[in-house]
Design a protein that fits this description.
The complex is a heterotrimer.
Chain A lengths: L1 H40 L2 E2 L2 H6 L4 E2 L3 H8 L2 H32 L5 H8 L1 H4 L2 H11 L6 H9 L16 H26 L3 H9 L4 H30 L2 H6 L11 H11 L3 H31 L1
Antiparallel strand pairs in A: 1-2
Chain B lengths: L1 H39 L3 H4 L14 H8 L2 H34 L3 H13 L4 H15 L5 H25 L3 H9 L4 H9 L4 H16 L3 H6 L8 H10 L6 H21 L1 H14 L1
Helix pairs in contact in B: 1-13, 3-13, 4-7, 4-10, 4-12, 5-7, 7-10, 7-14, 8-9, 10-14, 12-13
Chain C lengths: L1 H25 L7 E7 L8 H14 L3 E6 L6 H10 L6 E5 L2 H7 L12 H5 L3 H5 L2 E2 L2 E2 L2 E5 L2 E6 H6 L11 H11 L11 E4 L6 H13 L16 H15 L9 H9 L3 E7 L3 H7 L3 H4 E4 L11 E2 L2 E6 L4 H14 L2 H11 L3 E2 L8 H4 L14 E2 L7 H15 L6 H17 L1
Parallel strand pairs in C: 1-2, 1-3, 8-9, 11-14
Antiparallel strand pairs in C: 3-12, 4-5, 6-12, 6-13, 7-9, 7-10
Helix pairs in contact in C: 9-10, 9-17, 11-12, 17-18
Classes of the chains: A mainly alpha, B mainly alpha, C alpha/beta.
Chain lengths: 303, 285, 428
Amino acid sequence: MKTRTLRRDQRDGLFAFILDIPALLLTIAFILVPIVDSVIKSFQTYGVRNIISGKPGVWNDFANYLYLTKTDAFSMATFHTFSFVLGVVLVQFVLSITLALILNTNLKGARFLRSVMMTPWVVPTVISALIWMWLFQPQYGLVKYLASVFSFSTVTDFAILNNPNTALTGVGIAALWKQIPLMSLLLLAGLQNVPQDINEAAMIDGAGKVRRFLSVTLPYLSPVIKVSISMSIIENFKQFPLFWTMTGGGPNNATTTLAVLSYREAFVSMNLGTGSAITTLWMLMMVLVVFFYNRLFRIQDMG
Amino acid sequence: MTTQSTLKRDTHLFTAGKYLLLALILLFLLFPLYWVMITSFKTNMEAYQYPPTFFPYNPVLDSFVKLFTEHNQFFVYYQNNLIVALAVSLLCCIFAIFAGYSLARFKTRWNAIFFALLLVSQMFPVISRMISLYAIMGRMGIINTRGGLIFALLATQVPFCIILMASFFANIPKDIEEAAFVDGAGRWRILFTIVTPLVKSGLLAVGIYAFLMTWDDYLHAATLIQSDALRTLSVGIALRYLGELSYDWSLVNAISIIGTIPVVLLFFFFQKYMIKGLVAGAVKG
Amino acid sequence: MNIKRIATSLLVLTLAFAPVFAAGQAESAQEGPVTIKVANYALLESGYEPFWKSVKSGFEEANPDITIEWVTAPYGEIVNQVVNMAGGGNKVDVIFGEIDWVPGLVDTGLAAPIEDILPEAFINDFYPDVLKSFEVDGTPYGIPLYVSPYVLYYNKDLFKQAGLDPNKPPKTYDEMLGYAEKLSKLKDKNGNKVYAFGQTTASVPVSGASLSAMIFNFGGEVLDANGKLSVDNQGFRQAIEMVQLLDEKGYNPQNAKLKDLRNLFALGQLAMYYDQSWGFNGIKSINPDAVNFTASAEPLVGGQGSGQSLLQAHCFILIDNGDARSAALSKFVEYVISEDVLSGYLRDLTPAYPAKKSMASMESVVNNGILKGASPAAGRVKVQTFIPRISDLNLELCALAQAVSVGNEDVSAAIKKFKETAAVKISQ
């Protein structure tokens, strides 16, 4: 009896492994190996010549990393990335939870609205960038017109992507447009999982709307909130096509995030070593952010 | 009495505020789509008018006609995108059945590591692996082939799809398999003839998700494909628009519409599965 | 047994996808005795495609044993593409591109000296001064199809409306500012603002080249003859101050790419702007009527400068892929850079000046109305020193222009920062 179960365990393990093999090979070959390779390259002088001649890179005593400290480009890009992530994630969460809460009340046509609101999410990123570039167009754009109407013609030259102080916000708006639907959907699903009887019991106890939200809904919702925010953090941390299409990192480098900086260094300046150094630090930051984020949530769960 | 009426007034105010907020958010989400649509029906000269017209005074199909008659290359990109996205979503389903089932059923230590690997691999930015990927694929001789692009994209989508699929498999009671196992059915047969049919809706969600994400790809196709005959949609659009000599905003808007339609249709037809799938994958995964 | 079945179905699947792979590879297969690969972004741009297609069919007809295979990518990405392909062991034979791409491609070891591939007699027919712009360490690494200097395009109709003589374009920046004051008061027929003067500043390398040209107008320089950064000169500073002034006055569309300027100009919302001569094709493709109001003039004279400008030229950059392909490549280059092939192109698509002495009297150039006013400009070009990282330098120039315009930064502070950043960038 005992040997049989043991054998079955082993066979289970073997079977599980066989099932994993295709995905494992794929992930190793196309994701893990390239990542490790790029970390290695970040310590080497590795340029186009190396690609063409097939010669391996040469260890350069952290020159790529030192190069990043010589100008403020890297620190500014880090700052832009964090501002973008923080701003987009916060606003996105507030708007999404608002939308989800409203759609969760017994509203007529809520189901219909729920599916219609998802449309921006399926619009391809490059196309959504084009849509917002057109809306923000500095000469004929709708947003310029609306700004002039609502400011009673005091603001006549509103060009959000052209001003270094507002360009990041401009890209952020496009990001929000594309991402709010998914987060709302997830939060809405979470809300629908909150048991009604507990909510009703609290109502009978005389708990007000806000109280009920804070002490009943929120605890039930917190796993969903946690996941959807972490998805949003990762997505915005990685965001590239929106920036590249809408601003290319300008004006005056105001929208040069780590994604843009690394792409420019690696694929425009063809300096793959330095580009890899940026992506390596970038990945490191992302891992740390996600780690601390999870820690934060764990502490909250305890409390 | 008075408290009652204030309460009522409060509720009314609350409801009014609620609707206002809803309207504002929906306006933000949906108006841009309206704007793209009407721009595509404007002539270029009208599109370049300020103040802009909220309804084209002279709606024309020019830009669509131009797209269909002059810009044949657009449909080559379109077709490529379709082939690539379909292939990726199909293959993704197969990979996800295998590994998803394994993750959901067998809680081995090996699988725990595998799961962590999948989670982590989603985090890495595409740019960081592009150059190495190029070299690796070059050695395999699959640069500038549709197959190579499909595999690279497949690897990007597979981790999330596996996790998604695992959450569906986890919902299938184990007893069903046990019974079949006792009856002497082989593991593969159990997987394919008994368990998989039970997660059809999950499979659909995985397939559609992979399709949507692949349809959206820009970076892979931009780097891994060099000949125009194999290019996909986003890159095609970017070069039509980003090319130094293209200015035609009506056309760009028409392209945006045509490029979005298949995914919108797909989503609306299968939204039941999609929504269920996304929620399951994100929340339980 | 079951595993066997799985294996079989996987095999079937692989076979089912085999055509997918095959479809891609068939492309790189050689068809004729010699195939040359031509990297050409222009094929993706409406307006140029028919010309290049006719080049292919014409050339292949004349040389039945040579096949042309196009390699395409957008303008901004084709160099990348070529380099990436070379990394995968797939080298193209020639790149159609800009002069600024030469140093980068030489640095990668891809570009070959033209003397290695083209016959001497053919090379000797080119103006030596023009070829000089292609030299790296004394050897030319590219051959121009034609020369397209920066010219000042202006709108004759808007000049008339502002009460200015449409046949007297400004000659100096001071004159231009006087004109601009009048021009900026105009509105177009939809009541839109008219911008007086356009200078591209958006973050693309070509904008940086255009800014260099403007610095040359003021007698300044960005790099000295040895390729060292040299920005502590009056001309450099004055040009940057001009960029700031143009922005403060609202004369210059902010952060505009050249294509944005062409667009505004075509629609009558921009009175004057700098562009390479071939940019007119862009204007015409938006508004065919632009032929009637477009005129050109020489670049303006600023400060103590003499109105020098930067030479720009579309060129072929050649890559050595062995004797057979080089011979075919030489035939191709000689075929394209000839009066027969380029005559119609220079007349209808790309107003520009021939780079070959034997083409000087071409009818389509001599009688080109659009270029008439700017003709002397072709003679007053200054050669930009080549450094491998010229594109990075150009991008930093754009950032500087943006800092003093949309960024509202102080000129001295911005130049100081530019100096530090650019020095690091080009040192790498």
